[in-house]
């Protein structure tokens, strides 16, 4: 990018990491930054005379740059981005910069990428945990909370990279071929960013269809993944008798029993399915996965993912704030089947359909469902006839505090208040972490004690 007209778009942690990376490589390069007025003060604190800051990223202004490095949360389908791209501007992300700099021979032999609608963070963290248990100096970075560009000049024996649907295309755009790419599952999500369900699926699968990993680790139980054909990659399946799979709580490799998983710190069958993905990836990496499987017992679960924050007055509070799809909420409810549960659902409305959830509630409803947030009224209207027929309590709340009061009032001792919104937190909260912290605080627990993700970086 030396000598080109270059701009940055966005100044969160990813944007700052991209700036630092560009400045380390191109100390004399003039850069423009498009960011909000609130972010500008932090950017100005860099004291960089070669950094010009603007607040309005119009299509016409973006089109004056040859390259725009954008933060992952900014959709390339925004009208201003489409206009600039049509006029020759190249948009890339920090993920593409990291992969592009490291992929000198095309294939990145030590890099394991993980994506999927749900389970990608737990899968990534568990994969890094077991690689470290095998004695490998391992990096854990990406969408999990540590931008790759913050580790641009670091070294590791294995790189575990979590990728959101905003970033998978960046890997393909970089020209890099990951050694291993894991896809856990596919459900509709982020439709506002991608524009349609079909485009979301296409963008998500770019990690295996366009980046052409040496080995693609795929969930055989997911119909979209099971139908994939990848002529440029070896496919290794998990989730059925061909490889690592579960029979009840029993973990099998083919027909060979390996261990009982019921005591592992992986709540829910979907989380133990993530263990099958991890073990398949370890085998593809050349390790003895069966020997490493018992080390899952020492894994520290991630916050905001079916996280019990504590019991107060006989009620258990469970923080599943990471739940941003109705399918994730269904999986959470399955974990607590058999106990009286009041589930809190709703948040930012991305247009994701709740019809499958409503259908499941005809036979699998908890004691109470409390709706809230922007899409709360839409969910409530969909569930109202189901509640009338099935007999579960359905209430509408004005906010999280009101929802928790209503949930508590509907439960006996021994019940569970489950925050599993099935929708993003935007609007009411900065992110799902802030929502989870507020949930813990409202329940009477220390939010700092439930918020940190361990294991990121290199160890």
Question: What do these coordinates show?
Answer:
This protein is α/β, with parallel strands linked by helices and 459 residues long. It has 3 domains: 6-92, NAD(P)-binding Rossmann-like Domain (Rossmann fold); 96-300, 3-Layer(aba) Sandwich (UDP-N-acetylmuramoyl-L-alanine:D-glutamate ligase); 307-450, Protein-Tyrosine Phosphatase, Chain A. The protein has 18 helices and 21 strands. The strands form 4 sheets. Strands 11-10-9-6-8-7-21 form a 7-stranded mixed sheet, sandwiched between helices. A 6-stranded mixed sheet has the order 15-16-20-17-18-19, with helices on both faces. A 5-stranded parallel sheet has the order 3-2-1-4-5, sandwiched between helices. A hairpin with a 2-residue loop joins strand 12 (244-247) and strand 13 (250-253). Helix 5 runs parallel beside helix 7, helix 6 packs across helix 12 (269-284) and helix 15 (355-364) packs parallel to helix 16. The longest helix has 16 residues, at 269-284. The relative contact order is 0.09.
Brief rundown of the structure:
The chain is an alpha/beta fold. 35% of the residues lie in helices and 21% in strands. The chain folds into three domains: 6-92, NAD(P)-binding Rossmann-like Domain (Rossmann fold, 3-Layer(aba) Sandwich), CATH 3.40.50.720; 96-300, 3-Layer(aba) Sandwich (UDP-N-acetylmuramoyl-L-alanine:D-glutamate ligase), CATH 3.40.1190; 307-450, Mur ligase, C-terminal domain (Protein-Tyrosine Phosphatase, Chain A, Alpha-Beta Complex), CATH 3.90.190.
